[in-house]
Amino acid sequence: MKKILFALVGMVLAFSASAAQFTDGQQYITLQKPAAGEPQVLEFFSFFCPHCYEFEHVWHVSDAVKKSLPEGTKVTKYHVEFLGGDMGKVVTQAWAVAMALGVEDKVTSPIFDGIQKTQTITDPDSLKDVFVKAAGITPEQYDAAWNSFVVKSLVAQQEKAAEDVDLRGVPAMFVNGKYMVNNGGLDTSSMDNYVQQYVNVVKFLLTQK
User: Percentage of residues in the chain with pLDDT exceeding 70?
Assistant: First the structure.
């Protein structure tokens, strides 16, 4: 029992020590104009962004954050349209389709690979094909979702959220519409250190008012 208590105390002290090192302007940035009504944890990314690919597939930051947060924490992921030229808007709407149909986890990897590795996603049809092959969505289901009011609303929601936080680049993660994790201010001495500090910063910011 004592060992368990000591272990718990050690974990609390370790987190407290790391949290004490988090400084506004370094590991995180307080937004000048808080965005009301945004999800507790809001991530912006682009399938056309090489850093987003590393963030997602090499460093696995998004998964690490999701797995570490308290149960019930709302985590939302939005695609931005300012990369990729005309296809940027197409992919943003396709991501809205993925959200509406609940297949984000199934299509994320193949879309990233199709755009950045194999270059097999070059137009709306090849993008739709990913949903059919990777998520089991029929072309008819995809088209119906694509033209739905829900998807159009989700596209507008993604655009508005980016404006609300004055988004300047991706990948980016915001907490409670008030704070942004400062990617450049984290410990990059190793992948493990970076990911763990990223997780700890997000958890710390969730406790801030």
Answer: 90
Q: What is the pLDDT of residue 20?
A: 56
Closest by alpha carbon to 52, among 62, 37, 41?
62
pLDDT above 50: residue 59: yes
Q: Which of 101, 114, 99 is nearest to 47 (CA)?
A: 114
What pTM was estimated for this model as a whole? Answer: 0.88
Q: Please, which residues have CB within 8 angstroms of residue 153's CB and are 6 or more apart in sequence?
A: none
> Mapping DSSP to helix (H, G, I), strand (E, B) and coil, where does residue 174 land?
strand
How far is CA 106 from each of CA 2, 8, 70, rounded to the nearest angstrom?
Answer: 44, 36, 24
Q: How many residues does the chain have?
A: 209
| Buried b or exposed e, range 32-53, using 16+ CB within 10 angstroms | eeebeebbbbbbbbbbbbeebb
Cβ proximity of 131 and 83 under 8 Å: no
- Provide the angle, in degrees to the nearest 10, between the axes of the packed helices 86-101 and 104-116: 160
What is the pLDDT averaged over residues 116-123? 96
